[in-house]
Specification:
The structure is a single chain. The protein folds into two domains: 205 residues, Rossmann fold, CATH 3.40.50; 246 residues, N-(1-d-carboxylethyl)-l-norvaline Dehydrogenase, domain 2 (Orthogonal Bundle). The protein is an alpha/beta fold. Helices cover 56% and strands 10% of the residues. It starts with 13 loop residues before the first strand and ends in an 11-residue tail after the last helix. A ten-stranded mixed beta sheet has the order 1-2-10-9-8-7-6-3-4-5, sandwiched between helices. Belongs to the ketol-acid reductoisomerase family.
Length: 489
């Protein structure tokens, strides 16, 4: 089990009750911004390498939070990067030294935040490490590089703090909720943090300061290895791969049962990204079932108990392949094979052409929770929760990676754009994983879960769901949730 206890010389920490114990957490908010210079002691320049969704969001949030201090934020890009023009439109320029060559920016920075694409990081980290000034801190936002270094026998350079701050949401959510937080103190995306190397004893406060500056409502501790496992598994399971496979197969099921295209879309994709996600976000997992009629609960229970076992098997398989390096190797090999070529999109199946029509008629009525869809989706979410719990992840990490990131970051964007659009526009690592594992969830539903759902529910699984420890953990996390929902623009 990952230790979640830590102390800070800068910030006042809180203890959060979780199943079986407590966790130390930091409640964020803009009232903490005056403490940032103390947290960033010794840092006068932060270099953010990369301008993808996370790079853009983090550079902007850091710059805005540190306005009025003597700490500058610079963006480093590879020569010829097409992202330079967009960075300039957001106020980073060569003229004032806030935009430049990635190696130059890295060499001049006291904290170097590595947010370039995973494949590029795997290929070019030796060049970046070679130019770091003595004692400069290395910052990561997930553990892919650690996995790559372990796979290849590499190491982080000695004498440098190595920290991670990992927002539990996509880059667009990190920025959008931060902007909304200008009016609602603490609105943002929760983050985990990890300290992998701490040669001078300042790494915890540095990481916490980084998280506060990003706008995180609450920050919890993990390890870089644990974060890598939960992050990569989650992308392939409930956050992207599983949800895509689930809604595709549910749409087909409802069409075969006689629904027209729009109704089938509403009962599948629209239901997951709309009423099911909102219910979980505001009231928790159990509320999805509790809000149904008796006949709806019976349908939910049959779908839930039929889906849980097959979903758990796939999540366990994903976890094993991430843990032993198989998934990382598949990503690196795919990147080499694809090179600079664009990936084919998955949004070409017939159902995705229906989404625009459904979104256009949203104001006509309020969709109720579809019991069968809810049972399938919640069972898959709980399967991931249980796999993480069995593998020893801390509860904050479990509920953030399995529930909160889904319902408060990704699903709202999927509701606005559709699931396929989001899968086709996420990171290459996540896209590759979703494309590999989404069809596995789809096949498991069609071949195993749906036939079993014709039988009576397994009452022992229903009881296990109703009394699940995750409800307690989610309730504890909800106390730190800002009173704002993301507004997707």
């Amino acid at each position: 089990m990952t230790s979640t206890t830590y102390t800070s010389g800068v910030f006042a920490l809180e203890t959060m009750d979780v199943p079986g114990g407590t966790e130390t957490v930091l409640r964020g908010g803009r009232h903490l911004f005056p403490l940032l210079p103390q947290a960033f002691a010794g840092v006068r320049r932060i270099g953010v390498l990369g301008w993808g969704p996370q790079g853009r969001a983090q550079a902007l949030n850091l710059r805005d939070s540190l306005a009025g201090t003597d700490i500058r934020v610079a963006v480093g890009l590879r020569p010829g990067s097409r992202s330079a023009a967009d960075a300039r439109t957001h106020g980073f320029t060569e003229e004032d030294g806030t935009l430049g060559d990635w190696l130059t920016v890295a060499a001049d920075s006291d904290l170097v935040v590595l947010l370039i694409a995973d494949a590029a990081l795997a290929a070019h980290h030796p060049e970046i490490f070679a130019v770091l000034k003595p004692g400069a801190a290395i910052g990561l936002s997930h553990g892919f590089l650690l996995g790559h270094l372990r796979e290849t026998g590499g190491e982080f350079p000695a004498g440098h703090p190595v920290i991670a701050v990992c927002p539990k949401g996509m880059g667009d959510s990190v920025r959008r909720l931060y902007q909304q937080g200008a009016d609602v103190n603490g609105a943002g995306i929760n983050s985990s943090f990890a300290v992998h190397a701490d040669p001078d004893g300042r790494a915890v406060d540095l990481a916490l300061g980084w998280s506060v500056a990003l706008g995180s409502p609450y920050t919890f501790r993990t390890t870089l290895h644990s974060e890598y496992l939960s992050d990569i598994v989650g992308e392939r399971a409930i956050l992207l791969g599983a949800v895509h496979g689930i809604v595709e197969t549910l749409y087909t099921r409802y069409r075969l049962a006689g629904d027209d295209e729009a109704t089938a879309y509403e009962r599948s994709c629209e239901n997951v990204t709309g009423p099911i996600a909102r219910t979980i976000s505001h009231s928790g997992l159990r509320a999805v079932r509790d809000g149904l009629s008796p006949s709806g609960r019976e349908t939910f229970d049959r779908a839930y108990t039929a889906t849980y076992g097959p979903a758990r098997e796939i999540v366990a398989e994903i976890y094993d392949e991430v843990a032993d390096g198989t998934e990382l190797r598949s990503v690196v090999l795919a990147e080499r094979r694809l090179g600079a070529r664009p990936m084919s999109e998955i949004g070409g199946s017939p159902m995705w052409g229906v989404g625009e029509k459904v979104r256009a008629r949203r104001g006509e009525r309020e969709l109720p929770v579809e019991p069968f869809t809810a049972g399938v989706f919640v069972a898959t979410m709980v399967a991931q929760i249980d796999e993480f719990a069995e593998r020893g992840h801390p509860w904050s990490e479990i509920v953030n990676e399995s529930v909160i990131e889904a319902v408060d970051s990704l699903l709202p964007y999927m509701h606005a754009r559709d699931v396929a659009h989001m899968v086709d526009n996420c990171s290459r690592t996540a896209r590759l994983g979703a494309r590999r594992w989404g069809p596995r969830f789809q096949a498991a539903c069609e071949q195993i879960a749906y036939p079993a759902a014709e039988l009576p529910a397994d009452e022992s699984l229903v009881r296990a769901f109703v009394s699940h420890s995750a409800h307690e953990a989610l309730a504890a996390a909800a106390k730190l949730r800002p009173s704002v929902d993301i507004s997707v623009v």
